[in-house]
């Protein structure tokens, strides 16, 4: 009699599984279509290119020199690229804040003197190699002198040694081309 009870229970479980499968099949075939989907992105899948539509375009160039190397922003933070723009400037040139904000960092990293400014809207700009004339936490205005360009030839081996000013920008966690922060350019064809 023990075997008969077990066989009956097995048959009931089997019927329940078949019934559940039939209901699931009917729901899939005749149920309402949904547009909801779930996808999980790994940190490496998150794009670095950040929308610049809402970025204030009221910044100014920190130095008047020509562009020595344009930005080449990579699609992922870990990919190679040029995360800023290099502007021509001579050692000792006065470097201005591109926009108003608070000095986030003023010091030396890997032998390179630099200044970072938090503009309060998710935007942080960096200037290197700059011998700082400001202190961390200090409020700066647009166009205010924040330091002088260091002479790359006098910096330690570990420092950035390219000529001119390296000007970078990050919006939230992604790099952006700092030239996109500038307002429209007025072209004058004659005097």
Automatic annotation (TrEMBL):
Q: Residues of the signal sequence?
A: none
**Molecular function as annotated in GO:** metalloendopeptidase activity
Q: What Gene3D superfamilies does its record include?
A: Glucose Permease (Domain IIA)
Location of the M23ase beta-sheet core domain: 81-178
Annotated keywords: Signal
One matching Pfam family is Peptidase_M23
Signal listed as a keyword: yes
Q: Please name the InterPro entries in this protein's record.
A: Cell_wall_metabolism_enzyme (IPR050570), Dup_hybrid_motif (IPR011055), M23ase_b-sheet_dom (IPR016047)
SUPFAM superfamilies per UniProt: Duplicated hybrid motif
This one is known as M23 family metallopeptidase
